[in-house]
Design goal:
four-stranded antiparallel sheet
Length: 592
């Protein structure tokens, strides 16, 4: 018996405490006592049920509690009842530390009344109750708010009538369309911080889903269980694609060789960025896992789709776990045949239902801000196949489809491992498809993959991705001003980086290279000069940790205005296509 338990009174205390927990769990799980909990014991949910049961017919009850029930797939009956009882719902994020809990915790103020047809006022992503009070009195004018105030970089406390959504049956049906829930009455709640977000979700929900393409999915190796079974071992070093076992940090948005683990392998942050400018055609990934045991078993036991292994195909892979408040949430890239991955990555392909040429356009869609926004709106931080299936499909007959394909290929096809994909997707129209935004290292391409295919400069890649963002929005019928509002209000971290704030700030030099932090800090200390003469060469020189190459960064340094670029791309595409019908402003939006 442990020494602690042997002390006087401790054993009885443990037994009594355990008995109390078990008894409480049994009570909360009893469907005859709490039929709405569906056998999912949770004390705050039980309090909700008790309040509804005991309040007067004309009474009002207000509770502050957690909100896992509004998205939990296992509690549709409880959620439906909550919608019927709600009168007002204000969801808060604890970033201002109003409560002594973790700063990213969410909770809500819930005002409940008698059971009736759903109809309640609703706002999400709030930080202070004063914002709610002033939003209820706001006249609806001015810029719509978001997560952070774009002018100050602080949490957005500005009131606005657009924050408050009136939820009724029609809104619940829109949420149902977004989530594909079986019953609109119990659909999971969808978070929208302003009217542009709500309007955009409704537009996205009107399109067919990726599920219509018959995607196959793979969760890869279980990082814990399959390692214990001896399917792979921890062993740092370069690997052929056939032996590669990828993890989340290996990929980023449209970037399949984003980082490599360091040999020290201390933790999940012990990785180094890849230098894409000098990445050789034959580059292979550095991994910290290698296949083990019988090779035939390794190949046989990995995900199979019918007779073929998932590893036989080009796949769209994404990080499974992602923060809803980070720079990006949905983080996809194309990975080549041969590669495996662990379950911190999820992947998809269309081996039986669509040609290989569909892969880059689906990857382009998935890389877009609008796809990311849809995932964020469901408050998902564990992104699996069902979440991916809910994304809208792009109309492949659109003239923009080939433009998205080209940019997606040039962002993803980083090495000769992508030569077959490039050749299969080649279209002669690529020769006439000039970039819209600036390119600092543009090279000619043809039907055969060469090292000139991948875009390598940071600003070139950023600009190509921005072009994809606008093209996807146009193909889905989302006005460019709504796209700008979504970016400004839903992607606070990205907005900060674009404006030169934070460790990952997107500041570029005169040659389109992203300025590394030490050089950027030295530049800021000197008052942000515009001329190389004012900043010594040593301060403008930095060794890339991934390649050991010394780069000299040339002034002037600058940031890019993503909203201005979006509008510029939109205008250029309309002129090129001769299409003047593409919406710039939605009927209910306005410039500010």
């Amino acid at each position: 018996m442990p020494i602690t338990v042997a002390r006087d009174g401790v054993r009885n205390l443990v037994i009594e405490g355990t008995a109390e927990v078990i008894a409480q769990s049994e009570l909360l799980s009893d469907p005859t006592v709490y039929p709405l909990l569906s056998g999912q014991p949770d004390l705050y949910r039980a309090f909700m049920c008790q309040v509804w049961e005991h309040q007067a017919e004309r009474g009002i009850s207000s509770l502050i509690h957690m909100e896992t029930h509004i998205t939990d797939a296992k509690t549709p009956e409880l959620r439906a009842a909550a919608y019927r009882h709600l009168r007002r719902h204000w969801q808060f994020i604890n970033e201002l530390q109003l409560f002594d809990i973790q700063n990213q915790k969410t909770y809500g103020v819930h005002v409940y009344g008698a059971d009736r047809t759903p109809q309640f006022a609703h706002a999400t992503s709030l930080y202070h109750p004063d914002t709610v009070l002033r939003s209820l009195l706001h006249d609806g004018s001015g810029e719509e708010p978001g997560f952070k105030d774009p002018h100050t970089g602080t949490w957005d406390l500005r009131p606005h009538a657009a924050r408050v959504q009136r939820v009724d049956a029609s809104v619940l049906r829109t949420w149902q369309a977004v989530t594909e829930a079986e019953d609109w009455r119990s659909t999971p709640m969808v978070s929208t911080v302003n009217s542009a977000a709500a309007r955009t979700l409704s537009t996205l929900a009107s399109h067919p889903r990726l599920s219509s393409l018959g995607l196959e999915f793979s969760r890869g190796w279980d990082e814990s269980i399959d390692r214990q079974k001896g399917r792979f071992v921890q062993q740092w070093g370069e690997a052929s694609w056939e032996d590669a076992i990828l993890q989340g940090p290996h990929i980023y948005v449209s970037t399949p060789l984003y980082k490599s683990p360091n040999e020290t392998m201390k933790n999940q942050k012990d990785w180094t960025s890849t230098d894409l400018e000098v990445l050789p055609a034959s580059a292979r990934p550095v991994t910290q896992y290698k296949p083990a045991g019988e090779r035939a078993d390794y190949d046989r036991l990995y995900t199979h789709w019918g007779e073929s292994s998932a590893r036989d195909h080009y796949r769209i892979a994404w990080r499974r776990m992602a923060a809803n408040t980070g720079e990006r949430t949905l983080i996809p890239a194309i990975i080549p045949p041969g590669a495996a991955h662990v379950d911190s990555v999820f992947s998809a392909a269309m081996p039986h239902t669509a040609p290989l040429a569909a892969t880059p356009i689906v990857a382009g869609l998935a890389s877009s801000l609008l796809a990311d926004f849809q995932v964020r709106s469901r408050a998902r931080n564990d992104i699996r196949g069902n979440d991916f299936n809910l994304l809208p499909t792009l109309p492949l007959e659109s003239s923009l489809a080939r433009k998205v394909t080209l940019r997606s290929l040039r962002l993803n096809c980083a090495t000769e491992a992508y030569a077959d994909l490039w050749a299969e997707c080649w279209d002669e129209s690529f020769l006439d498809d000039a970039p819209i935004l600036e390119r600092y290292d543009e090279r000619g391409v043809g039907p055969v993959w060469t090292p000139d295919v991948p875009l390598r400069r940071a600003e070139d890649r950023r600009n190509a991705q921005a072009e994809i963002d606008v093209m996807v929005a146009m193909m889905l019928g989302v006005p460019v001003e709504d796209l700008c509002t979504i970016y400004r209000t839903q992607f606070a971290a990205l907005y900060d980086y674009d404006h030169g704030r934070g460790q990952g700030a997107y500041v570029y030099d005169a040659n389109g290279r992203q300025v590394p932090t030490p050089v950027r800090q030295a530049w800021a200390k000197r008052g942000r000069p515009d001329s190389n003469d004012v900043m010594p060469l040593a301060e403008r020189t930095h060794t890339h940790p991934g390649s050991g190459v010394n780069y000299v960064y040339s002034l002037p340094f600058r940031t890019r205005d993503r909203e201005s670029d979006f509008r510029r791309i939109h205008t250029a595409l309309n002129i090129t296509s001769g299409d003047t019908t593409m919406p710039i402003l939605s009927p209910s939006s306005s410039r500010t």
